[in-house]
Specification:
68% of the residues lie in helices and 0% in strands. The protein has 198 residues and is mainly alpha-helical.
Length: 198
């Protein structure tokens, strides 16, 4: 007697998950988090709402899972062997993230929504902000171990210095950057962190 293929909640087809993921990102980019709905995502993905609820319990859980999987997981934490190389690569990674055609539209809306929705802010911090910062902190721990940074380096402040200038320039100001911008920024950060050659 042949075994029946399981159906329903037992099967989460990858192609359906991918279609839903793309629909979530498109809905966030076009309508923002406040107007994001399970109904809208299901319609765009061409699936029933049950396909969404088999994967996530709520709109918030769905949005955070997709953002984490699609954007945060792709952020590289380089290990080039030098602090300068790691900083330069990290700045390029963050720049690519912040200027991504879809995420550049999702992020400002999400930040604005967090101001009005403290619970969402806590979730974003827990699922997005903290994991990203913890991964990136390895850059500075390695640099301290190599003798490139002082032992008393404030890693929390150093983490702010990686993201803040790029966020301000590309997201807040929506300004252009010349071909040497990331190199110049890297050198400025190294001076600010009192970095030395290992």
């Amino acid at each position: 007697m042949s075994r029946r293929t399981p159906t329903g909640a037992a099967v989460l087809q990858p192609q359906v998950t991918e279609a839903i993921t793309e629909a979530v990102l498109d809905e966030l980019a076009e309508h923002g988090y406040a107007r994001l709905s399970m109904e809208g995502v299901a319609k765009r993905a061409g699936v029933g709402k049950s396909a969404l609820y088999r994967r996530w319990k709520s709109k918030q859980e769905m949005a955070m899972a997709v953002i984490c999987d699609h954007f945060i997981a792709t952020l590289d934490v380089p290990d080039t062997g030098t602090l300068r190389g790691d900083l330069r690569a990290s700045l390029e990674s963050v720049t690519g993230w912040l200027t991504h055609p879809r995420f550049a539209r999702v992020l400002p809306d999400l930040v604005a929504e967090m101001v009005c929705n403290p619970e969402l802010g806590e979730v974003v911090g827990l699922l997005v902000g903290e994991p990203k910062r913890e991964r990136t902190a390895e850059i500075f721990r390695r640099a301290i171990a190599r003798g490139e940074l002082p032992q008393d380096t404030d890693i929390e402040l150093a983490l702010d210095l990686i993201a803040a200038p790029v966020y301000w320039r590309f997201v807040v100001r929506a300004a252009e950057a010349g071909p040497t911008y990331l190199d110049d920024l890297t050198d400025t950060l190294l001076r600010a962190l009192r970095a030395t050659s290992s």
